[in-house]
Amino acid sequence: GCSVAALSANKSNPQPAMTGISLSASASGCSSPEYSYYVLPPGGTWQNPQGYSSTATLPWTPSSPGTYSLVVWVRQHAGPTTSNAFETYALASFTLT
Hints:
- By secondary structure, this protein is mostly beta strands.
- The chain is elongated.
- The strands form two sheets. It has a four-stranded antiparallel β-sheet, with no helix packed on it. Strands 1-2-5 form a three-stranded antiparallel β-sheet, with no helix packed on it.
- Strand 3 and strand 4 (47-53) form a beta hairpin.
- 0% of the residues lie in helices and 55% in strands.
- The protein starts with a strand and ends with a strand.
- It contains no helices and seven strands.
């Protein structure tokens, strides 16, 4: 299964609110990874803008200033895990002014 995940953004941290940002994930140890993105806005609740998909990038335009927590869960497509499980993950934070 997938053993290592990484998460990055195409823009430097911080950025003004309403800036379009592309999040990119990668995985090692699996031949056909699937990615599920989660975003925690400041003072908010977790959102899942992309369920498991082979698409490794997520276009993201945060609207409010503050620090966001970002997580990507990664699993092997048709792997041994259950439909909602993940094998590895990566964390990041991004600040909007």
